[in-house]
Amino acid sequence: MKLSALLPIIGNASVAEHAADPDITGIASLHDALPGDLSFLANPKYTRQVETTRASAVFVPNDYAGAAPETCVLVRVDSPDKAFAAAVPHFTLPPIQRKPGIHPTAVVGENVTLGEGVYIGPYAVIGDGATLGARVIVEAHVVVGEECVLGDDVHLYPMVSIRERCRLGKRVTIHNGTVIGADGYGYATSVTPQGIRIEKIPQLGIVEIEDDVEIGANTTIDRARFGATRIGHDTKIDNLVQIGHNVRTGPCCGIVSQVGIAGSTHLGTGVMLWGKVGVAGHLTIADGVEVLANAGVPGDLRTPGQYIGSPAVPKREALRIFHMPRAVENLKEEVTKLKAQIKELQDRLNKEPDA
Amino acid sequence: MKLSALLPIIGNASVAEHAADPDITGIASLHDALPGDLSFLANPKYTRQVETTRASAVFVPNDYAGAAPETCVLVRVDSPDKAFAAAVPHFTLPPIQRKPGIHPTAVVGENVTLGEGVYIGPYAVIGDGATLGARVIVEAHVVVGEECVLGDDVHLYPMVSIRERCRLGKRVTIHNGTVIGADGYGYATSVTPQGIRIEKIPQLGIVEIEDDVEIGANTTIDRARFGATRIGHDTKIDNLVQIGHNVRTGPCCGIVSQVGIAGSTHLGTGVMLWGKVGVAGHLTIADGVEVLANAGVPGDLRTPGQYIGSPAVPKREALRIFHMPRAVENLKEEVTKLKAQIKELQDRLNKEPDA
Amino acid sequence: MKLSALLPIIGNASVAEHAADPDITGIASLHDALPGDLSFLANPKYTRQVETTRASAVFVPNDYAGAAPETCVLVRVDSPDKAFAAAVPHFTLPPIQRKPGIHPTAVVGENVTLGEGVYIGPYAVIGDGATLGARVIVEAHVVVGEECVLGDDVHLYPMVSIRERCRLGKRVTIHNGTVIGADGYGYATSVTPQGIRIEKIPQLGIVEIEDDVEIGANTTIDRARFGATRIGHDTKIDNLVQIGHNVRTGPCCGIVSQVGIAGSTHLGTGVMLWGKVGVAGHLTIADGVEVLANAGVPGDLRTPGQYIGSPAVPKREALRIFHMPRAVENLKEEVTKLKAQIKELQDRLNKEPDA
Questions:
Q1: Lower CB count within 10 Å: N or C terminus of chain C?
Q2: Residue in B120, B125, B194, B354 to test binding to C, most C beta-carbons within 10 Å
Q3: What ipTM was estimated for this complex?
């Protein structure tokens, strides 16, 4: 495909006059590109890679001021990321499509309601009384519990399991191995003359997931002790995340891989938790809070902004902590100087009487 | 259901004379309750929510001294948590019950011993030579390996997989997606003239889980290199926990979500590891140790009590570390003062000769 | 089995003259051993356990200088660890062997290519167009996506799922519940007058795993946005690990349990990441870097060696940070002394005029 044929697809783009019009045969990152490949510069960290790339063409920001090899045509665009995303499907295989139908090995329970165009894959198990909306895709080896409700266009990848009575909104996508609605961790522990006594607190609520939520692989979202654990619409959750019983997230939250949120904590709108963040239970996290990777949150965060560290503090305070080793070194040096000065004063005073 | 009809169920409770006797139609937290709902105050953090709740009745501790809206009846009880737990089943659907029987799609191997009242769900696979005790529930899509032994009343949720020869005691419950008995991470690495050489150490032991253990979803417990990885009776393990080969836990331990315990570490009785705690390998953790969330444990903990931080230290020491930024600020101020005082002394001494 | 009969199996070993020749009936750690057991001393931490062990024989290093009970024969060997590993199979059951064949319940798609000696277990699902090399073992309940390619001697344990078009080299082993090729976490977020707008970035690449890689249980490795997420040959990955889209690891890396590596990060050769390490996205980690447990890596690590802490720093620097509380205490004491000395100087100067 000629570069010139590709440009109309990506919208507002400009190419230097007299530039070559190479054949584009593939896509790759700046570092990996070979002749024939199209690449892009979205992250300024990679700017210097443009200068040495072997790509035949690179999407760069309109204000890109750097150079490029002679073999590489620079295409100036408003958003290199979006332009590249528009070009990618022309050089990759499309995702697998599922045709409506129920595989003969699927076990569909009694009183199940199926919308039009539903796909149910090999060995999927749909519990009694479940409801699947239109165009729902339930892939191989998915287990949907009794009386679950799945909205239109839900897509469950293989090995997903959903316990009884949970409710998923429209266009919810859940990746392989994720578990929705297992019992939360809830026990009443007491110390008796006979030893430690641990009783299970029944977990009788459900999980409710609103529209347009996507959840990654091998994540776990626990059912509520009573009522519902709730994930707000448009929230995106990554792999291996733990969400405890009775947690609620607002809409449009981002919850990155290996985050853990303990029971009954509430996230506001647009909260962003980066990789491995841990949040204690029964907390309130305000709209617009962003917690950076690896942080631990032991208390409410009531003001929007960036937090960092364990225990998490506003980023500005954290920088002070990170610079503390330097501050302590400086103090040591100052104290050493002061000691010398005092010694000198003492010596002078001790001499004075003799003077 | 009238509140007065509910009270006998929950035992020792007192209501103010002349209080109303509302119809209770549901249950909810203080914050979410609507008229008709019953709620409870167990965590003092939520005390102020009683004053504004819309619940029709609230269980409070006997010594509760606060107010409540006119529309809300306060019910004084010994344990609001337990009273509420006793009331919840009257307003929620019961958990799904499995009737004994073997689904026609289940694959049961040769020489399998099944106790009375066993349930085996769709597509479950039971390996040759396995033994299942009375009333064992093996849900859809569970894989039980060859020669495994499951005690009476074991309950395995969908997608659980147990590798060959592992042994589970009575009343062990394991939630969806958990893996028992995969190979531990064990390699012999050497550097040779040809490069790094990595050889697998065979993992030929098993996992033994004692009575009354509950394990959450998507957790992994590795088989021993030889002998057994062992989980003590009444220990409760949450979701996404990693337990390495040859680990042993005492009875009555609590291991919360995303904890990782490296190989050959031994936990005593009643050890509590909160969310995301990491414990290095070959360590001894004493009876009654409690490690707070997010901590990392690089060495033995031989004294009971609370530990915190990474590397974990006794809580009291940790507070000193957390207060260090303040201490450094104080030192800076003191050093500044000392400098001024020394300057003044120097000035005075320098003048003296002239005096 | 007589000890003397066992020794030829383990190679270069020496036993004191006139030592007894006990019957060996089992194997155990020094701490757990009973009479009849063989044990070994590999980790010097356990040296004192040799003195009190009840084992009938113990493999010790050639230079072992300690004592042992009279009931215990010390066997001096070059590597107690290797000698013990050679002895273990004589006292444990062998791993389960799968005989070639396709279980009648397996669903094998159209245009699937199967090498000789393949085993496909109950309820496994092989997608259209997939290729399985010779002697591949696909256990019960595995789902292999469309057009995947599995090299000779690949072994997939139950519940593994591999999304479409991913490629595994020869002798790749993957344990239960692991997900290869789920979509990475990739969204374009913008704030519009109508609120936060979150669009999914299609994830159209694959995962490529080179020869001799082993991957633990419930781990997730995301498919690339475009191109491939790549795991280098001989790399060993533990349980519950997250590897983001477009990550690349060199050969011979070790990635221990609960590690998370964010998107587009590249690891060199022989990189070792211990338990729970988090690595941010778009980073370069040099050959021979070792990051100790629990650390967080926010930036490139360009020099081989050990790193520790969050943010991770070279181990030497970290020790300074760990010792900071001590340093601050010392400074406090010094400042207190200086204050006293200045006070004394001031007093003397104040008196002088009167002298």
A1: C
A2: B125
A3: 0.91
